[in-house]
Amino acid sequence: MEVILLPKATGRVIITSELFKAFLNCPTKCYRLSKGERGVGNSFADWLAVQKGKYKDEGFNRLAANARTKEYDTGHLDVAGLKSGEWQFVINCVVTANDWESRLDAIERSARPKPGKRLDLVPIRFVRSNKVTIEDKLLVAFDALILAGMTGHKIPFGTIIHGSEYQSLKVKTPLLVSKVRRQIEQISHSLSDAKASGPVLNQRCTDCEFKIICRKEAIEKDDLSLLSGIREKERKKFNGKGIFTVTQLSYTFRPRRHPKRTASKGEKYHPALKALAIRERKVHVVGRPELKIEGTPVYFDVEVLPERDFYFLIGIRIPKSDGFIQDSFWADKIEDEKRIWDSFLGLLSTIESPTLIHYGSFETTFLRKMLKRFGLPANSGIEKTIKQAINLLSIIYARIYFPTYSNGLKDIARFLGFEWSEPNVSGQHAVVWRHEWEKSHQLALKQKLIGYNEEDCMGLQQVADFVSNLSMPRGGSKNDSTTNVMNVESLPREDSFKFRRMDFCLPEFEKINQAAYWDYQREKILVKSSKRVKDIGEKSRKRKTVNPRVNKTIYWPAPAQCPKCSGSKVYKHWATSKTVLDVKFGRFSIKRWVSKYLFYHYRCPQCGAVFQNPDRTWGNEKFGPNLRALSVYENIELGIPQGRVTVFLNQVLGFNLTRAVTNKLKASAAAFYKDSYEGLVRKIVSGRLVQADETKVNLKPGIGYVWAFTTLEEVVYVYAPSREGDLVHSLLKDFKGVLVSDFYTAYNSLDCPQQKCLIHLIRDFNDDLLKEPFNKEIKDIASEFASLLNPIIETVDRFGLKSRFLKKHKIGVDRFFKRLSHSDYQTETALKCKKRLEKNRHSLFTFLNYDNIPWNNNNAEHAIKAFAMLRRDFSGVSTEKGIHDYLILLSICETCRFKGLSFLDFLRSGEKDIDAFAHTR
After folding, report:
1. How buried is residue 122: exposed, middle or buried, by Cβ count under 10 Å (0-12/13-18/19+)?
2. What is the mean pLDDT of the chain?
3. Does the structure show a pLDDT above 70 at 316?
4. Are 77 and 8 in contact (CB under 8 A)?
5. Cβ(739)–Cβ(732) under 8 Å?
6. What is the four-CA torsion angle of 817, 820, 822, 824, rounded to 10 degrees?
7. Closest C-alpha to 46, from 432, 420, 426
8. Burial per residue of 461-491, b for 16 or more beta-carbon CB atoms within 10 angstroms, e otherwise
9. pLDDT of 318 higher than 90
10. Residue 83: which pLDDT band, with cuts at 50, 70 and 90?
11. By C-alpha distance, which of 830, 725, 822, 810 is closest to 769?
12. What is the mean pLDDT of the segment spanning 715-735?
């Protein structure tokens, strides 16, 4: 066999195999190479290029083994060179055709051609990795296309020699030629541009020589490709909408409500929310991620040589109360892989209830392959531990958005404050260090690898601790400024179907919109063109300036003595007056009532002090108590918005008030009744019964939650910025009565007897039956529960909520749960119902043991409905202070209603104690 070695080509063509290969990976790299640029700074790319060169040299040696070689006198191989000589392989040659050029690793010729016969040529490519990609096949097809153009004969197939064993793969080139031609057209179009379109980062940047340069440019441009979670198709879709930067994308995020029907589905990943987290430098959380670690957490990380599929290092970190245990298992050669696996399992077997925690699918693949290769020791008892390993990335994905461009462990851990001893280290560096160690066996390189693996475990633990803290209930606001964590639920939602002030992107639009307002049109435009509209405006303004007539003038007497020296002789100093606007209630009427108080400032001739009579009934208030009572009554009990209350007072009673006045009257009333409100809270907490429910409210800066706590006669509304259970726990920590509530889990941890609302349970049963009308199992459970509850309801209707009459039904309850425990259900819905009933067994029929404890949460739900009616008027416009004022007054109003009292009469009475007011009635 004769082998021809060709020197490096010197010719220049438009498209080369180097450019073709680069374009398949990244058009930006192709453009840079076409301009003669060379990247620096990526040590892994440099090392990989050296390894590929060595792999190719070894491949050349294998082809040339036991064969004669001779030099070829030109860098390019032509048809004559293909036909001449007694050779089977041409190595490292350059061929050209149609302005295309390719440097082939090798060409195989099946036999020496005869005159007039076709050349049987096979292009050969060496690929170092064990896995052959579509890019490798297209490159061979590119070689075949050029050979076919040069020889005039079709090249039916090519060969890829790949992997550590130099295996041969046959590639049918005619199937790929059309795709190769399309790629060539795209390359020609790309290289014809005078300037590159800009770097687009992708997964192939890791082993690219231009990695550092492109990333720097992408950061300067804030390019969308910085976000590793965006695919090329999605990025182009954003570009089509005019979104090219991460900052632009961040402004497109809109929080959405999650319907109950989609609760079982996984969260959808939002690139815009990732961009928002980066812009605000805050962690954004969707819902509450759940990281359940039952037992001892074991953080582990593995290192691998991917081209050999050889796992050579396993690192483990186990936290203890007094520190931690760090261990590593090292394999010198591939035969040691089983040894380190057995050592890994042996350590796990010594830990009580171990829970494996890792990051990403890399370790998941490791566990699966190790189980397949070596299995588990007999009676090891750790099969469950292996199969239930926690992938921390799966919990973070689409739920926790860190202000990092990727969800890589190193990016997130660095954001949380953890740093690796080696700057900008990655898994590729570990591969390089391992190869260097295999050559030199230097102890320093081994320690370097083990240290890097240990730091990976430490970083993993820090990220896991952060996620675990997010899983815990948090008090106060959902937004924690100390850790820069923001819950997406707290972000304001925009509703395009509400009347609201429009935010315009352009200031010119704002100016145009201002000119279209109704008031602006009437007061600025139409008055200039219509005399009638002008007269109407003048009359309305004239009517507004009319001062109300004084109904009663009161002369306030002089003080008996000087308040400073107690002198009995005082002189009038100067006169002044005070006008108080109020209303007067008749038996069947209301009228405006204006009182004018005339009084003097006095001077004491003995000490020179200037003073006035301190015994005044009107204080510093401009508005009387009856006007405040009427305004609050209309706003709170009648549900009339404050703006409409102002219109009523002005139009019907002849006042000249603004919208701010009614708000001040509300705030004044809330301050007056604050002690009454706090007394209601103390009375409810110290009682024998509390019924609780909660609902959401939209506020000006975000959202909040209102909790209603009721007895049979009192109601209290409490605001909280979140739906966490901390408010309930702090308010009811000393409560020892019975709590009636729905099935919200925040109530379960309270240390008191509880009664779950059976109406909620009945509704859920009914929903399940409507969804699955042919599910006999759920129908049987619902029927048995209804048969159990109906006699109890009949007893309640006959004798009331008296335990001496209700206790007889406890036997039926025990029989129901006994039958339920022995039932073997097959459908998922029935199993969930059974589990729910058994879980809440001790809180479903608590009312059988107590007097006057209802079996439903009707009082609290009724109170929530009253708040919902009021919420329609201020939702989205009230502040946190404003909602507190509303809740104080609504608590007083609903308590009066529960006690059968008139809220208006209570407001007019001036009394603060509702029970004392009730006794007067």
Report:
1. buried
2. 83
3. yes
4. no
5. yes
6. -160
7. 432
8. bbbbebbbebeeebeebbbbeeeebbbbbbb
9. yes
10. low
11. 830
12. 88
DSSP conformation class of 74: S
Domain of residue 310, CATH code: 3.30.420.10
* Residue 268: pLDDT band with limits 50, 70, 90: confident
The angle formed by the CA atoms of residues 213, 214 and 218, to the nearest 5 degrees, is 120
State residue 111's pLDDT score: 62
**Same structural domain for residues 838 and 862?**
no
Least confident piece of the model among 67-71, 296-300, 866-870: 67-71
Residues in the chain: 921
C-beta neighbour count of 674 within 10 angstroms: 14
Higher pLDDT, 28 or 500: 28
Instruction: Give how many domains the chain has, as a whole number.
Output: 5
CA angle 729, 733, 734 (to 5 degrees): 160
Q: Examine the domain organization and report whether 746 and 821 are in the same domain.
A: no
pLDDT band with cut points at 50, 70 and 90 for residue 904: very high
Token couple for 902: 């008139």
Q: How far, in Å, CA of 163 to CA of 129, rounded?
A: 5
Q: What is the pLDDT of residues 457-501, one digit of tens each?
A: 999 999 999 998 887 755 444 445 445 888 887 777 665 555 556
149 assigned to some structural domain: yes
Q: Where does the pLDDT of residue 5 fall: very low under 50, low under 70, confident under 90, or very high at 90 and above? A: very low
Residues 693 and 389: their CA atoms lie apart, in Å, by 38
Closest by CA position to 583, among listed 525, 648, 677, 672: 648
C-alpha span between 811 and 47 (Å, rounded): 79
Give the pairing of strands 610-612 and 689-698: unpaired
Q: Which helix (H) or strand (E) holds 283?
A: strand 283-285
pTM attached to this predicted model: 0.56
Type of residue at 433: W
Best CA proximity match to 123, nearest among 147, 101, 100 = 147
The sign one gets for the Cα dihedral 412, 417, 420, 425 is positive
Lowest-pLDDT choice from 56-70, 304-318, 736-750: 56-70
Residue 313 parent element (H or E): strand 310-320
Same domain, 153 and 10: yes
Return the number of other C-beta atoms located less than 10 Å from residue 68's C-beta. 10
Question: Is residue 6 located within the same domain as residue 104?
Answer: yes
pLDDT of 145 higher than 60: yes
Whether the pLDDT of residue 149 is over 80: the answer is yes
With 90 as the cut, is the pLDDT of residue 147 above it? no
Looking at the structure, do residues 716 and 577 belong to the same domain, yes or no? no
At 786-798, the pLDDT tens digits run 999 999 999 999 9
Cα(143)–Cα(104) distance, rounded to whole angstroms? 7
Neighbour count for residue 579 (Cβ, 10 Å)? 14
> Dmax over Cα atoms in the chain, in whole Å?
144
pLDDT score at 539:
60
What is the 8-class DSSP label of residue 578? Answer: E
Statement to judge: residues 40 and 101 lie in one domain: yes
Amino acid at 828: E
- Answer whether residue 209 is part of any domain: no
> Letter for the amino acid at 788?
L
Residue 764 and residue 742 share a domain: no
Beta bridge partner(s), residue 591:
584
Nearest to 260 by CA among 610, 856, 764, 809: 764
Look up the domain containing 114 and give its range: 2-192
For residues 694 and 741, the answer to whether their CB atoms sit within 8 Å is no
| Single-letter amino acid, residue 475 | G
> Does residue 507 sit within a domain?
no
Q: Is residue 32 located within the same domain as residue 181?
A: yes
For 635, which DSSP code?
I
